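Hi everyone,

Forwarding the result from last night's run.
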Amino acid sequence: MSSPLSSFVGQALTWVPTATFKDRYDLIAADGTPLAILDMSNWTSKANAHVPEGTLFLHKEGWSGLKVTVSTVGQGPLIATFKRKWTGATGQLLFPDGREFKWAKLNFWGTQKGWTEPTGGPPYIQFSSGSFTRKLRAEIQPHATEIPELSLLLVLGLYNVIVERRTAAATAASTAGSV
């Protein structure tokens, strides 16, 4: 996992689930090279990610769960904060130096999501999912090579998709139980 992720621009990358009873995913390049790992608890929203630059720690904060902080392992220095909109489909990633990225649906059905400029535009990283699979395809676009936090964007994109899937499953379960 020492390769910089910018060298995989334009290639098909896939987040592949590697555990049955928890959310553990490996980011695999088309040639089979492992690039990153996300290990997320099934009982909490805490996750550890092992990326080429080191280890990241992600977790929700606050009673609403709309804010996610990214830091180095444990209670290390804050790297970035993600603020999800109440609808859950979009949000803003904020860095301490003032830079921002927008998490957004890229198509009507929400099967494609990505990181863009705050004002929109073409995605830096595009994520695509199928209806009946836990795998998530990711593609780094050529204009994203200047972003030093590509690993963070790839990991947080998967984290967001997992949280969205969990929320949808919980909503469906509570709705079915009340009928």
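The first strand starts at residue 13 and ends at 17.

Cheers,
N.
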